[in-house]
Specification:
Elements: E1 4-6, H1 16-20, E2 26-27, E3 36-37, H2 41-44, H3 50-54, E4 60-62, H4 81-90, H5 104-114, E5 127-131, H6 134-153, H7 158-161, H8 164-172, E6 184-191, H9 197-212, E7 218-221, H10 223-231, H11 233-239, E8 245-254
Antiparallel strand pairs: 1-4, 2-3, 5-6, 6-8, 7-8
Length: 274
């Protein structure tokens, strides 16, 4: 099967597909020609689907997706600038959770939204690990505390920088400064040699955090958990990532205990114009 197929009855030969192709592998050889693949295009194509998505006539098909397989854009659901601003400013890092488990199906839907986050060269390197049971979340949090105690013993510069004595003290008093009693922790991992993985995983978790509120969920970047998962071999072993894969981010997720009533202020943007 050809990588690209053009429905010649629908195609208007307007060249939009060729113009948007990020790899530049689609061409119209003359004004009467239909879109075609350049020599070697099969190897260069990044499988992004832009050619299929942009065609207003539904004439372009890719070997891995057809127009009828793709959801149509609903312009009625578009947000205006004020709505987008309010949505983004309303986002809060949630550190207080109800003692209530989120159904797995809801978390699957949340991750299904986040998987559409962009990635360099459309490599889509992001893989997911959900620590679902709260007892398991707390067990892994103990590994984080173990790592902190090791750093304190070794007089690591991270102790002061990350306030580890204070964190461990809170833990010993029965509080949870690691996962904030969140019922779930979601991690992203990818192959350690993939140069696109760190940014791709960060963007995917950002998508997940922003999408959480639409499911009545709250989320927060699990910084201490993430640091230990990145730097502490015993914890890495317990997490059990596939061989060659490493952690690239962790997020606490659950139902918020409180509802925020106002949008707090932030510093003005510092901009350099060139």
């Amino acid at each position: 099967m050809s990588l690209l197929t053009t429905d010649q009855e629908k195609c208007k030969r307007d060249g939009i597909c060729a113009e948007v192709c990020p790899a530049g592998i689609i061409e119209l050889r003359n004004k009467d020609a239909f879109p075609s693949l350049v020599d070697g295009g099969d190897e260069i194509c990044i499988r992004c689907g832009h050619c299929v998505a942009v065609c207003p006539h539904g004439a372009m098909s890719h070997a891995i997706m057809k127009p009828e397989d793709c959801q149509a854009v609903n312009d009625d659901w578009s947000f205006g600038p004020e709505q987008v601003e309010h949505f983004l400013r309303y986002r809060r890092s949630i550190r207080n959770y109800k003692n209530k488990q989120v159904e797995q199906e809801i978390l699957k839907k949340l991750i299904d939204v986040a998987r559409f986050a962009p990635s360099g060269h459309n490599f889509q390197p992001v893989r997911w690990l959900v620590i679902y049971e709260k007892d398991e979340v707390q067990r892994m949090a103990k590994f984080v505390i173990e790592w902190m105690r090791y750093l304190i013993k070794e007089d690591s510069p991270l102790v002061a920088a990350m306030h580890l004595n204070r964190v461990v003290s809170f833990w010993e008093k029965g509080k949870d400064p690691i996962c904030r009693n969140a019922p779930h922790v979601i991690l992203t991992h990818a192959h350690k040699k993939d140069p696109t993985a760190p940014v791709a995983c960060t963007i995917a978790l950002t998508y997940l955090e922003l999408a959480a509120s639409s499911f009545d969920l709250g989320a927060c970047w699990a910084g201490y958990f993430n640091a230990a998962a990145t730097l502490w071999p015993p914890m890495q072993q317990e997490l059990g990532f596939p061989e060659g894969n490493v952690n690239f981010g962790a997020m606490m997720v659950g139902y918020p205990k409180f509802k925020y009533q106002r949008l707090p202020l932030r510093n003005d943007a510092e901009i350099i114009w060139r």
